[in-house]
Amino acid sequence: MAKTLAEKVWDEHVVRSAPGEPDLLYIDLHLIHEVTSPQAFDGLRLAGRPVRRPDLTLATEDHNVPTVDWDKPIADPVSRTQVDTLRRNAAEFGVRLHPLGDVEQGIVHVVGPQLGLTQPGMTIVCGDSHTSTHGAFGAIAFGIGTSEVEHVLATQTLSQAKPRTMAVTVNGSLPPGVTAKDLVLTLIAHTGTGGGQGYIVEYRGQAIEELSMEARMTVCNMSIEWGAKAGMIAPDQTTYDYIHGRPEAPKGADWEAAVAHWSTLASDDDAEFDAEIVLDASEMTPFVTWGTNPGQGVPLGGVVPGPDDFEEPNDKITTEKALEYMGLAAGTPMREVHVDTVFVGSCTNGRIEDLRLAAQILEGHHVADGTRLLVVPGSVRVRLQAEEEGLHEVFLAAGAEWRGAGCSMCLGMNPDQLAPQERSASTSNRNFEGRQGKGGRTHLVSVPVAAATAVRGTLSSPADLVLTTSS
Amino acid sequence: MQAFTQHTGVGVPLRRTNVDTDQIIPAVYLKRVTRDGFEDGLFAAWRGEESFVLNRPEYAAGSVLVAGPDFGTGSSREHAVWALQNYGFRVVISPRFGDIFRGNSGKAGLLAAQVEEKVVQRLWDLLESRPGTVVTVDLKSRTVRAGEGVEAVEDSFDIDDYTRWRLLEGLDDIGITLGHDADIASYETGRPSWRPATL
Ligand code: SF4
Questions:
Q1: What pLDDT digit, counting tens, does each position of A206-232 carry?
Q2: In a domain, B69, yes or no
Q3: B44 found inside a domain
Q4: Could you tell which of A32, A63, A225, A354 is best to mutate to test the pocket of ligand 1, judged by most ligand atoms within 8 Å of the CB?
Q5: Does B187 map to a domain?
Q6: Which of A34, A429, A431 to mutate to test the pocket of ligand 1 (most atoms within 8 A of CB)?
Q7: pLDDT value at position A470?
Q8: What is the torsional sign of CA A86, A88, A89, A95?
Q9: Domains identified in chain B, total number
Q10: Is residue A134 within 6 Å of ligand 1 at its C-beta?
Q11: Whose CA is nearest to atom 2 of ligand 1?
């Protein structure tokens, strides 16, 4: 029978299947961090259970860690306890850990691919909803809760009902200056935050094939923001080239065997999806959010919508509440929105290509008065690579803050937070109320928009910058 | 896990849609390493407003939360479920739940009952006009009931069969899976040797 990519990978991992029960799925890689794991390890200890496969488990510290003074003890005692707890648990249960200060430390979804641990056809889980990032390699990857973390630690499996499948086909090519981030924000505005619910989504079509591996990760990363269980992209030469030679990639005859298998994973031509969405990339433009969920977005050239632009009573209420929270008036051009803080980083846009792009735009410019720019690399490796290429000098010369690796202002769990009513343009993935600090107001943007916004102090694209400098 | 068959308790109308897990409990409250004590962070951003529903004495003993669509979207934090439970909620009713939140609820023993949107509307109207009204949620018959006479609301709710069974029996998921240990071991012998390992 013809199968989709998702079905092939799923079926290969079914340990047990019985009528009326969810499938028992084998997990190839379990990623762990300090916030969602302590109670899971506690559960194991209470029940006297070991970690079944420490060799398929990897831990790092990311959500909570400071991005300055990372060589000193963590100042916040509660954060320190959480990180210390992870270190104790990793030691006790024999799990490999990349702690703060280690060269492989970083955001869990940046570290996995970077080490070559993320490979096509795998099942990957983590107690973090943006685990969908790893789907860019053609893996089934999704976020789980702490009870499930404990379940995977104890059994290396998860019981999961098989989701339906959806194809998102993006035809055409993205215009110059329009990025994977704009693509996915456009998609989410189109579907709403619940549009993908219950589906494993496969992104395909010319625009997706043309994306680099890192850009594909940006797209898959945000699958959860429109409710999808997971997002995937069929592996191809771009995928193999990215993995080849990484520390944990297969080598020699293993590489040949792996690639031979990976190349069978693409959806069969006659495979049927339960749903399909078709978009045209050539019509896309830089896209930004105005509201308090990732579906509330408009083109950068557009205006802040108002309650009257929506038909459904619930949408009207939601819009009103979002505008009030965001401190925005309907009809305001997005380009006139002043921004206090620009954040470049996170598992959505904190990889080396993102930093190169930001540096390219910032070169020769300075951050606007009254605006601050935080550049936070997704991992220590990304930071070192950027420094080797001299990108940090561009950031510093532009007046940006150059930080250590971690989640940082993406979720404001460490000291990198917005003050109440402070407004940010952020390359992260969530603009929920209070996400970046209590009362903080977040606009989700692409890397080029973030960099240009930092220079002008209002939401901008690099095109606006050229105009400024030449006039 | 405590078995769940039926629950009757004060209904709390949360007239909001898209309540993501960052609203249920902001990240700064996630630093505890235990499963308790998260009630302080529940709806933290709204608890400061006097008019917020949880601050009204009539709803103080609330244990059945009635929320708009897309409740529990966003972050995977199970702390959102714990915060609701630590506060005293046993049931959340909504027309649509975030997938991970629903899964987490099932594991932790919080009943996530999915109803049609019009049922939520009627429950909101009832609970607001008669604060303190109790809602009965019966997992065996999959029904939700509240109020009397013309205002009475009685309808069915959705929950998948497997989660329902586990909740009714109060079964520990890991225990069930470890019963299939032989299947897991045999699967492992067939895994390709080139799959990556961390050690
Ligand atoms: S960067 Fe943000 S979204 Fe990514 S793992 Fe960290 S907190 Fe989650």
A1: 999 999 999 999 999 999 999 999 999
A2: yes
A3: yes
A4: A63
A5: no
A6: A429
A7: 41
A8: positive
A9: 1
A10: no
A11: A410
CB contacts of B98 in chain A (<8 Å) are: 227
Chain B contact set for A321 (CB, 8 A): 16
Q: Is A122 an interface residue toward B (CB < 8 Å)?
A: yes
H or E segment at B69?
none
Q: Are B68 and A169 in contact (CB under 8 A)?
A: no
pLDDT bin (cut points 50, 70, 90) of residue A289 is: very high
Q: Is the C-beta atom of A427 inside 6 A of ligand 1?
A: no
| Interchain CB distance below 8 Å, B177 and A159 | yes
Three-class DSSP labels, A47-103 = HCCCCCCHHHEEEECCCCCCCCCCCCCCCCHHHHHHHHHHHHHHHHHCCEEECCCCC
A347 lines ligand 1 (CB under 6 A): yes
Evaluate if residue A364 carries a pLDDT over 60.
yes
Q: What is the pLDDT of residues A23-48, one digit of tens each?
A: 999 999 999 999 999 999 999 998 99
Sequence-distant (6+) residues with CB within 8 A of A251 are none
- Band (pLDDT 50/70/90 cuts) for residue B172 is confident
User: What's the pLDDT at A70?
Assistant: 83
Q: How many residues does chain A have?
A: 471
User: Does the C-beta of A107 come closer than 6 Å to ligand 1?
Assistant: yes
Q: Which of A264, A139, A142, A281 is nearest to A207 (CA)?
A: A281
A202 neighbors A168 (Cβ within 8 angstroms): yes
ipTM of the complex: 0.93
| Beta carbons within 8 Å of A216's beta carbon, 6+ residues apart | A136, A180, A203, A208, A233, A238
Q: Is A284 helix (H, G, I), strand (E, B) or coil?
A: coil
- The pLDDT of residue A467 is 52
Distance CA A219, CA A211 (A): 10
Inside any domain, residue B98 = yes
Least Cα distance to A258 among B81, B114, B195 occurs for B195
Q: What is the CATH number of the domain that holds B33?
A: 3.20.19.10
Provide the 10 A C-beta neighbour count for residue A183: 26
B-proximal residues of A, 42-61, CB under 8 Å: 42-43, 47, 49, 52, 54-58
Q: Are A105 and A99 in contact (CB under 8 A)?
A: yes
- A375 Cβ neighbours under 8 A, 6+ residues apart: A344, A345, A355, A358, A395, A400, A401, A402, A403
Per-residue DSSP letter, A184: H
Indicate if the pLDDT at residue A88 is higher than 80. Answer: yes
* pLDDT tens sequence across A440-463: 999 999 999 999 999 999 999 999
Which of B165, B66, B32 lies closest to B106, judged by CA? B165
What is the predicted pLDDT for the residue at A315? 87
Kindly list the residues from chain B whose CB atom is less than 8 angstroms away from the CB atom of residue A127: 76, 78
Which atom from ligand 1 is nearest to the alpha carbon of A378?
Answer: 1
User: How far apart are the C-alpha atoms of A115 and A250, rounded to whole Å?
Assistant: 11
The Cα–Cα gap between A146 and B26 comes to 17
3-state secondary structure of A272: coil
- What confidence score (pLDDT) does residue A469 get? 47
Structural domain for B100, as ranges: 6-170
